[in-house]
Design a protein that fits this description.
two-stranded antiparallel ribbon, 1 helix, mainly beta, single chain, 8% helix
Length: 73
Amino acid sequence: MKSPLRRTPVQTSFGAGTSCGGFFEIDFNAFVAGGSDPALVASVVVDTQWWSRDPAAPSTTNLTNALEFGLAP
């Protein structure tokens, strides 16, 4: 990841047993409106990716595919 690195609040995926059926989500509109990151303003391009810890995984961590989007006014 490229600086500056920002993190959202900690979440739990609540996966069902060993099926890997858990998921993460965030209401990004509410996150931006909350004002916790003053750099998130209209016309900014956001690159995002979920990084999770999983003690049962061979590497103990996981990364999702990345996503890029722009913030509209």
